[in-house]
Specification:
globular; 2 domains; alpha+beta; single chain; binds adenosine-5'-triphosphate; Rossmann fold; BirA Bifunctional Protein, domain 2
């Protein structure tokens, strides 16, 4: 399938099946904002839960945080965002369109109208959304919507250290919304002005920083593969020295092969002591660690794996999308890892007849205690299977008239389409062995 075709199919499927809707559609839409529908909200939540499970739940050395989105200018002054969180903006004098210079394929040619040599001199455009907190419009009321979640971890470093009984090497993780006034949002939910991030700041003794940087690069790449991404479609790309920010001694991106080429899913950066030092300097608070073993103080170095939740969900969607011919018909199937799939199981009574509703509801009630299940009793069964294939549900449980006699159901596998007959009494255990 051509790349542009895949892209259009994902956008269409998203709309048709309640994954992602363009926002404010009834008012003509609002550029670059999206709403996650009944299926999409589950998938996005699963991406975030899978990350949280790997990064917090399974790790004694990482704790969580949920910091505020509204923040005072002092944070962004200290972090350097007020001065440096900018992208180079150019205007096309011929058609008036605006572009981000560093993302243009040809820095002299306007991608909107094709004019060459018509760009204005680039100027630095700050991406932070500025607002005001409270009813008085003065400079003391200025607040910013955070453009990343990371600063929440740095400004709470001492709070967490004092309350969690952790010591370096340890991490603080957070998932949440971030906002950037992107010059050219686009490619569906790949680049939006409002998006969700999954970030972790890992604080280490300075001498261990390089080792932990390598560790996190490998760990993060493997996470995507473990959650079903085709290994050939994800890779690590180390930044060239001219791409590095001044404080970073190493950054690698986890990249996915999107329809438009390899592009970033996540950045892993070796940030040195830049962040804690800056906040200590600007706030006057001590942000270091007293190591009892060596009887000395040091400022921990930071390794930061920073991923986008919404962007990652889109990559999972694109990677999972398959079309195949079955009985001369095209079958669309999302081969998602069960942890990412919106529903794990769909319970489908063969017909709407009331005698099937009783056992079907009972099975749904039992299974949905443990797994997110769908329940669908309309349309022909074949159509309902196709519908579940399209949203990536790994298993369908069909309750038919034989069920009333043999107390068994048919379970259909999304990928192989094979069906097995299982006694109702064994169904939960059957799934427990497969939905691990
Ligand atoms: P870019 O260079 O593409 O603007 P970045 O390198 O500035 O991105 P980071 O600051 O490293 O991005 O953010 C970490 C992650 O957050 C990114 O890898 C991406 O997954 C996600 N992200 C960043 N900006 C956006 C956005 N505008 N829309 C969706 N996700 C984003």
């Amino acid at each position: 399938m051509a790349s542009s075709e895949l892209f259009d199919k994902i956008v269409n499927l998203s709309k048709r099946r309640g994954i992602v809707f363009p926002s404010a559609e009834i008012y003509g839409g609002f550029r670059s904002t999206y709403d996650y529908g009944p299926v999409g909200v589950l998938m996005l939540r699963n991406v975030k839960d899978a990350w949280w499970r790997s990064m917090v739940q399974l790790r004694p050395d990482v704790v969580g945080l949920d910091a505020s989105i509204l923040s005072p200018p002092a944070i962004w002054e200290a972090s350097g965002h007020l001065a440096n969180f900018t992208d180079p903006l150019v205007d096309c004098k011929s058609c008036g369109s605006r572009h981000r210079l560093d993302k243009l394929e040809d820095p002299n040619t306007c991608p909107t109208c094709g004019a060459t040599g018509e760009f204005t001199e680039p100027r630095q455009f700050n991406l932070m959304f500025k607002t005001q907190a409270g009813p008085v419009e003065d400079s003391g009321a200025i607040a910013y919507l955070r453009p990343e979640t990371a600063q929440g971890m740095f400004i709470n470093f001492a709070n967490v250290l004092n309350t969690s009984r952790k010591k370096p090497p340890f991490g603080i993780a957070q998932i949440g919304k971030s906002f950037r006034n992107e010059i050219t949002p686009g490619n569906f939910v790949f680049r939006t002005r409002e998006f969700e991030q999954m970030e972790m700041e890992f604080f280490v003794p300075p001498a261990e920083a390089d080792e932990w940087y390598d560790y996190w690069c490998n760990e993060r790449l493997q996470w995507y593969i473990d959650h079903g991404m085709t290994a050939e479609k994800v890779r690590l790309r180390a930044h060239e020295s001219d791409e590095l920010s001044h404080y970073s001694s190493g950054t690698s991106d986890v990249e996915f092969e999107f329809p438009w080429g390899w592009d970033e899913l996540e950045g892993i950066a070796n940030r040195g002591d830049y962040d804690l030092t800056q906040h200590a300097k600007h706030s006057g608070e001590k942000l270091d660690f007293f190591d009892q073993a060596s009887n000395s103080r040091y400022t921990p170095h930071v390794i930061e794996p920073a991923a986008g939740a919404t962007r990652t969900m889109m990559a999972f969607l694109m990677d999972a999308y398959h079309e195949e011919t079955v009985n001369d018909e095209t079958r669309t199937v999302l081969r998602l890892h069960h942890r990412i799939a919106a529903y794990k199981i769909a319970v489908l009574p063969l017909s709407k007849k009331p005698e099937l509703a009783g056992p079907s509801k009972e099975i749904f009630d039992g299974l949905s205690q443990r797994w997110m299940c769908d329940y669908d009793q309309t349309q022909a069964i074949g159509k309902r299977y196709r519908r579940q294939d399209e949203i990536g549900t790994p298993y369908c449980v069909t309750v038919d008239f034989d069920t009333l006699d043999d107390q068994a159901v048919t379970i259909r596998d999304r990928d192989t389409m094979e069906q097995v007959r299982i006694p109702i009494a064994d169904v939960e255990q059957w799934f427990a062995e497969r939905l691990v």
